[in-house]
């Protein structure tokens, strides 16, 4: 009897509960990001207490190392998941990504060291998108990605406010404990409930197949950037606009807390409000703008909002300015879904995977470079020391990195003006001179192009390319943050 129970439990651990579905992926994503979102306020406090002299610089280095490691490891983990299955890599990525959480109160130094090193495994979205691709057909995939995106956004809209409330009433220790328990629940859910999505036949046929360097090379897609002038312009636009955005994600909450003096409650409310506005902008306004202005003009409008937002952050020194700029930031979130549509119009259907892979690679690289760049600029301008010594400072530029970011987006705007817009889904002029033969719906292409993910309160993610090049039916790149 005991032997039967053990065999039954082993079979359940191997098979999970029910058939593999999008809802399994949704639960995994929600629990992981919810646990990290709870730590938004305590993490800022611990960061300042651990590195009181160079808070912004150390924050930039920590997030920069994590981002670069994620960029380097994402293609390899995606390729390995094609051989060993998605479920095992979901377990590995979630476990190592959440491993630093209990160390926050035990040893802050080890906590931040582990956050940096965990970047090598912080690519949950790469595996999640491959999982979703396994369990959906082409027609259902856009809806499935939308559900994952909405779940990701919902977890980050709600969890910082809950974490701030628990911290104010019960202390940071309870917040860390709750976050640790939720992370453990996520790991147990993967062990007990998540079934393998990759068919047994595919796994058995791929066992023993060597992983080529091209599959694991994070720079492989970037080498093809210059082979088409239109794609080159789009990639330059993405790099110049996303580099400051990645830096902003890594440091903006710390900036609001340390420089603008937002309280924990105000910061949590700010995240929630701007997050909800971003969701509205990427659903209602994006659809309306795409239909009325066209794809290219929507990209230009999003870049314009981003310039205004970053300039406002750079020159603003009062809380109301941050709230106003936050509303503008919500509107600037339409840029990258519109870029995805523009890419789909500029490439042949059989070249979508290659081009979207370039965009994914560039954004992943920015996730490593952006935080380090912002941290260095904060350090270069002595922002920490200046605001500590002056209770009511009169700096001409309170936030130098944001102003520099606005300048790079201005250049991105000028580059985007030269991008030719394709208005027809079947235009014969959108021929790419790329020699590769990717298959966007294949398991290899899905896992390697799925994206780079940074599991912090401001994480990152990307998605598979759209199957068609029509601006009325595209799959937007999942935005890296709701704020």
Automatic annotation (TrEMBL):
The chain crosses the membrane at residues 21-40, 60-80, 87-103, 109-132, 144-168, 174-194, 231-255, 267-290, 297-315, 321-343, 364-381, 401-419. Keywords: Membrane, Transmembrane, Transmembrane helix, Transport. The keyword Signal does not apply. One of its GO terms (molecular function) is transmembrane transporter activity. CDD domains: MFS_MFSD14 (cd17387). One of its GO terms (cellular component) is membrane. It is found in: Membrane. The keyword GTP-binding does not apply. Residues 425-472 are annotated as: Disordered. InterPro entries: MFS (IPR011701), MFS_dom (IPR020846), MFS_trans_sf (IPR036259), Sugar_transporter_CS (IPR005829), Tet-R_TetA/multi-R_MdtG-like (IPR001958). It is a multi-pass membrane protein. Belongs to the major facilitator superfamily. This is Major facilitator superfamily (MFS) profile domain-containing protein. It comes from Astatotilapia calliptera (Eastern happy).
